[in-house]
Design goal:
12% strand, alpha+beta, 29 helices, 665 residues
């Protein structure tokens, strides 16, 4: 077998590689700038902590680092072709640990310094990033107090400083020393661009459920992997089919009570890893048995005909009219019913409340996204808390009456079928009594035809064409006979229908806007009695989003300065429009109202409160000895707001109202 002549690849210990006196790395000009954010830093630190607590044989692989010898002045330098983001972030972590222990532990500080700076010149770092930001990076790593523009280096370094205290520094250093990578060094004849593209050409990326599958099996013996695959993973796949990704997302929302983001991130997989740390095989089997149990119920939600109880089956089908957004709540309740925690009547009542919530919100034009986690949290507090939570976001009867009078009726077949008491509305057609596209000869009374009506009269008819009063359901054979016909001809066909609300139309003398309005009022009474709002004194909440369900966005995305219309804080109206302002105001308010909770949260998380302005950046002074660091990105700030409000026990009393810009971001 021949060997490669222009590529040398060697598995190495990352710290040993960086600590060598001759190691000096330069990021070339054509590389993109450093972009890792707090989220990437959180993951790196979590990986380091995890591997630090394992046995001596366990290492953590960080990927491949691709470099080539410099071809000009400093021939000893390595040009970093791939791996800049990882190596730069690792250097910032090491710098943060170094500055934490340099006075208290000189021996450890010396080990860390050998990784950071060149042996022949301790004023130069071993890594020199993109030339535009090289000096800024060196100022951070060497802890030089210079006035400089804000950068990712500052924020990420500050994050690591806040997370690693002196007592944990040896543990972190132990974990860092267990990092490994493949060092790929190119010879003069190698095509660096082609190799770079090969390393980064991953084709179709792994989906969340595939990452979960790999994560579950990783580290097991071959025999254990086979058993877990056959006993647990395959039954989950069989139960959920093509919707396995949806199952994991909804299961995690159900169990965590928090929304799980999917767009643009590995949100489901990351949430799974956070909830399911590495466990022994026996614990894994116990958890996997629970996953299988819920996956089988999830399969019935997808296909309610599998449910033996005809009424529950019908109610589950009704819920599916609105999609799968409420599956986390329904799945939990379904499991409780199957295990005897709630009786059949309570489960059906919940399904009815869910339908009323979703239908009423659609009627008045409110979205139904991001409601499930909120209700899952409420359910943990008991049935009464859930009913109150549903009622608070269910539009009132008064709003419904106004909306259905002129608005289009959503899910017309479902609504009219239930109003008519039809068990199988799928066998019926939705009929527009006044047609959507009337012919010139169409008549509502047999006297005046369509073309003779004034423009105002025609527009009034068109405005009501999709409203509740102008719609009915009719058997498919009869639907063909009434399509486009004038009302006098339709009356004779309606009289032959077996559906009461359609047969009643035959009693009308004529059909126009007055008749539509009168029928709308009558059918609205029946709609409100079927899709009842739970009895409570609470009012609907103007589309407010609980702060725990607010969207965490990394960086500072466009439009963040006007993300919120306002914030409702324990009944107070705050003119707060962005995350940075919210972060500052919440911490300042809780510093006055619940200082012990703020201190407890910051101590556990390693920030954002500090006893001094320990590095460059934006700070706010809470008192003479306590400072709030304001340099985090949007996601970190919102996470901190959610965490400290939860710590204080008042998160359920704080809401944000998204602006149009914020909702579209």
């Amino acid at each position: 077998m021949g060997s490669a002549t222009n590529v040398e690849a060697t598995a190495v210990n990352t710290i040993a590689w960086l600590s060598q006196p001759e190691t000096a790395i330069v990021v070339p000009v054509y590389q993109r700038q450093y972009r890792w954010d707090i989220g990437g830093c959180e993951q790196l630190l979590a990986d380091v902590r995890a591997v630090a607590d394992t046995d001596a044989r366990t290492m953590h692989f960080i990927g491949s680092i691709l470099s080539a010898p410099a071809s000009d002045a400093e021939a000893s330098d390595l040009i970093l072709i791939d791996g800049q983001q990882r190596i730069t972030t690792l250097m910032l972590l090491i710098a943060a640990v170094h500055h934490t222990v340099r006075d208290a532990d000189p021996e450890l500080a010396a080990q860390l310094q050998r990784v950071l700076v060149r042996a022949e010149d301790t004023a130069r770092t071993k890594l020199r990033p993109h030339r535009e930001w090289a000096d800024v990076f060196q100022d951070v790593v060497l802890d030089r107090a210079q006035r400089r523009p804000e950068s990712r280096f500052d924020d990420n370094y500050a994050f690591f400083r806040s997370q690693v205290g002196p007592e944990e520094a040896p543990r972190i250093w132990h974990g860092i020393q267990k990092l490994e990578h493949v060092s790929i060094t190119l010879g003069a004849g190698a095509n660096a661009q082609q190799i770079f593209e090969s390393l980064n050409s991953t084709g179709e990326p792994l989906r969340d459920h595939e990452l979960i599958h790999n994560y579950i099996l990783m580290g097991l013996t071959h025999e254990q992997q086979t058993q877990v695959e056959d006993e647990f993973w395959m039954p989950i796949e069989r139960a959920t089919g093509e919707q396995i990704a949806g199952f994991w997302r909804h299961y995690l929302i159900m169990t965590t009570g928090r929304e799980v983001t999917v767009a643009g991130e590995r949100g489901v997989y990351d949430a799974f890893r956070a909830q399911v740390p590495r466990v022994d095989v026996d614990t894994l089997r116990t958890q996997a048995a629970r996953w299988v149990e819920f996956s089988q119920l999830y399969g019935i939600l997808l296909d309610p005909t599998q449910e033996a109880d005809s009424e529950i089956s019908r109610q589950l089908s009704y819920v599916n009219t609105f999609g799968r957004g409420m599956y986390p709540l329904v799945l939990r309740a379904y499991h409780d019913h199957r295990t005897g925690a709630i009786d059949r009547g309570a489960f059906i009542d919940l399904l009815e409340n869910v339908q009323a919530l979703l239908l009423r919100r659609e009627i008045v034009g409110l979205g139904n996204d991001r409601l499930a986690a909120r209700l899952c949290r409420a359910r943990r507090q008991g049935q009464d808390a859930l009913v109150h939570a549903i009622s608070r976001i269910t539009p009132s009867d008064e709003r419904i009456r106004v909306a259905v009078k002129y608005g289009d009726l959503p899910h017309a077949a479902y609504v009219l079928g239930r109003i008519a008491g039809v068990q199988t509305p799928a066998d019926l057609d939705v009929e527009h009594v006044f047609p959507l596209a009337p012919s010139d000869g169409w008549s509502g009374d047999g006297i005046r035809v369509w073309k003779e009506l004034t423009d105002d009269e025609q527009n009034s008819h068109r405005a009501l064409a999709q409203s509740l009063g102008n719609l009915t359901v009719i058997e498919q054979p009869l639907a063909e006979r009434v399509f486009g016909a004038s009302f006098p001809a339709k009356r004779r066909v309606y009289a032959a229908s077996g559906i009461p609300i359609t047969r009643d139309l035959a009693e009308q003398d004529g059909w126009g806007t007055a008749a539509i309005a009168a029928r709308t009022a009558a059918l609205t009474d029946r709609l409100l009695s079927i899709w009842r709002r739970p009895a409570t004194t609470l009012i609907d909440d103007d589309g407010l989003t609980p702060v725990l369900d607010a969207k965490r966005r990394r960086g500072w995305p466009r439009g963040w300065e006007r993300e919120f219309d306002y914030v409702e804080y324990r009944g107070e109206h705050w003119e707060v429009h962005d995350v940075r302002h919210l972060f500052n105001r919440v911490f300042r308010r809780l510093w006055a109202d619940a200082r012990a909770d703020v201190v407890a949260y910051s101590t556990r998380r390693g920030g954002p409160l500090f006893p001094a302005k320990a590095w460059n950046g934006q700070w706010d002074e809470l008192d003479e000895t306590t400072f709030l660091y304001m340099g985090w990105d949007s996601k970190y700030m919102l996470t901190a707001v959610q965490g400290v409000l939860d710590e204080a026990g008042i998160a359920h009393e704080v809401f944000v109202k998204y602006s149009y810009i914020g909702a579209a971001m």
